[in-house]
Design goal:
heterodimer, A: mainly alpha, 2 domains, B: mainly alpha
């Protein structure tokens, strides 16, 4: 794409010297634009997808072009199915994340504060983290049936353990000199926690939230497929059962875009901001 | 990794394991931490037994410890355990082998070429978000229910994490190293084998660890949804008949297996490669 645009512009017009740099300058400006750099690569990929679908390389029942998927989006939007399922999925994720943070953060800090507790709980944390979240779904279904509680339980579970592990790791990263310095300056236990340990552990906590949400997102899709009442995951699997490929494609695209937005617009900036703050703490350490 | 140590570990973990370790090599520094690692589990199991005993929860809701141990022994004796374990491990091995064979060269190519990485980075980030479980419906449509679809999911979950981390690892190689190797007349082939690959290795291994984490979850989900063998399938079957003892036994096996893979295989590998990278850094 790059080559044809750069070479094509001067060749089509008169071979003037002023035109070529203009096209090149245009390309240079374009390639520095962050929106173009992010979305640009998708253009040839979608074009290729379309070409492959139009050429009929794969049978229609297995592979559909972007035109069919767009038509399907319009159809589902009009019927109100897509917004309904989308809000179902997001509500479940919201509940899961909310309870996950409420449980994971305090438990993580409680574990991290005492060396003895940490030593005793660490192996158990590792083990529960090792039992893949989805593996809980069967027993959760036995306990709560095919309900919102089951899905929420699994998401909360997925988020709590990576979060606790990150909180413990983050608290361990806080340099001991900082804590001792604050203590010798007369700070009480609570002030040391609020003003030294909490901000110091924040970058690790932020990346823990990001990892946990990443796992939770996947768990949500799997849980919706298995529990199968509503939501994007259910829509995809239901469509697969009927043999409607365009809805399966549509579901994957919606999931990808949603997570990309969540990650790029909320989680990544949050992580970056806390890391910058941690940098502040670091430089303080250098001074002292 | 024969299947028989697993049920043994589930039933009388502390004595059996520590004793075996001690027999293998009398390393005093190893037995202590192992015991410390296992002690919390003994406490956990004891608490579990007491709570179930005191509250009298029906077995259908939450089984007693010996029920689970019996279920494990049953599964081991009937050969069911070996069958499921074999199916799951085969799929993980195949999936990760294909992921390494495809993701590693791809990641190195991306890291070595700025144009390629500028083009593929947004696509990769998008795909990482999608990787694994979201592919289950389409994978079962393309490949049918069974080994093919599950291996595809494991590969898919690992590929993107591996490629992305490999790319980051190659980019982190100091330019001085690249330039000096090139100025001393290294061919493309030698650059790949002696500079790019070892330089990126620490990042590659952590990518492998992250990817395998996703792959393992993907495996369990895919087996529950789309297969007729494997640990996930065992869970699915047990849920149909409300046999909570078998469900918990399978969960314990899944947890123990992942702990073995992660702590005894991947974590030491990561440490070793980081040490090796330190060496190359020192040579600079």
């Amino acid at each position: 794409m790059t080559a044809t645009r750069e070479r094509g512009a001067p060749a089509g017009a008169r071979p003037g010297i002023r035109r070529a740099p203009l096209a090149k300058r245009f390309w240079a400006v374009l390639s520095r634009n962050s929106v173009f750099r992010t979305l640009g690569p998708f253009v040839p990929v979608v074009a290729l997808w379309w070409l492959v679908a139009e050429a009929g390389v794969f049978p229609d029942a297995f592979f559909v072009g972007p035109d069919r998927v767009v038509a399907e989006i319009g159809e589902l939007l009009r019927k109100g199915i897509l917004p309904g399922y989308l809000s179902d999925s997001l509500t479940r994720l919201g509940y899961g994340v909310g309870f996950g943070l409420l449980i994971g953060l305090p438990m993580g800090f409680l574990t991290a504060m005492s060396l003895r507790v940490r030593k005793a709980v660490w192996p158990i944390l590792l083990f529960f983290q090792a039992i893949a979240d989805i593996a809980w779904l069967p027993i959760v279904i036995v306990w709560f049936g095919f309900s919102l509680t089951s899905v929420t339980f699994v998401i909360v579970y997925t988020i709590v353990f990576p979060l606790m592990l990150s909180v413990v790791a983050g608290v361990e990263q806080v340099p001991g000199e900082l804590i001792r310095a604050a203590r010798s300056l007369g700070a009480g236990r609570i002030r040391v926690f609020v003003e030294v340990i909490l901000p110091g552990a924040l970058p690790a906590v932020a990346s823990g939230v990001r990892t946990g949400l990443g796992y939770g997102w996947r768990a949500l899709v799997a849980a919706e497929i298995i529990v199968g009442t509503s939501g994007i995951g259910f829509m995809m699997f239901d469509a697969r059962r009927v043999g409607d490929v365009s809805q399966v494609f549509l579901g994957m695209i919606v999931l990808g875009i949603l997570w990309y937005m969540l990650d790029a617009l909320i989680l990544a900036p949050f992580e970056k901001a806390t890391v910058e703050r941690w940098g502040m703490v670091r430089s303080m350490e250098g001074d002292g | 990794m024969t299947p028989d140590p697993v049920p043994a570990a589930g039933r009388h973990a502390p004595g059996g394991r520590a004793a075996r370790r001690a027999r293998r090599g009398p390393r005093a520094g190893f037995v202590g931490p192992t015991l410390w690692f296992l002690l919390p589990f003994v406490v956990l199991v004891a608490v579990w037994a007491v709570i179930v005993e005191v509250t009298g929860v029906p077995k259908r809701i939450f089984p007693q410890v010996d029920d689970v141990a019996l279920a494990l022994a049953d599964m081991a004796a009937s050969g069911e355990l070996a069958e499921h374990l074999g199916a799951s491990l085969y799929r993980v091995l195949m999936g990760s082998a294909i992921a390494i064979a495809t993701g590693l060269p791809f990641g190195i190519a991306l890291g070595a070429s700025p144009a390629l990485s500028a083009f593929f980075s947004p696509l990769l980030r998008f795909s990482v978000a999608l990787a694994g479980i979201a592919w289950i419906p389409i994978a079962t449509l393309w490949l049918g229910y069974g080994d093919g679809a599950v291996i595809f999911i494991v590969w898919n979950a690992m590929f993107f994490a591996l490629a992305y981390n490999t790319m980051l690892g190659v980019r982190r190689i100091p330019t001085t190293l690249l330039r000096s190797a090139r100025s001393m007349g290294a061919s493309r082939w030698r650059m790949f084998w002696e500079v790019l690959l070892p330089g990126a290795l620490p990042s590659v291994v952590s990518g492998l660890r992250i990817g395998l984490g996703y792959g393992w979850r993907g495996l369990v989900a895919a087996e529950i949804i789309a297969s007729s063998a494997g640990l996930g399938y065992a869970l699915f079957l047990a849920q149909k008949t409300f046999s909570t003892d078998v469900i918990i036994a399978s969960m314990v096996i899944i947890g123990v297996l992942w702990l073995i893979m992660d702590r005894l295989l991947l974590a030491p590998l990561e440490r070793r490669t980081i040490e090796r990278w330190g060496m190359t850094g020192g040579a600079r």
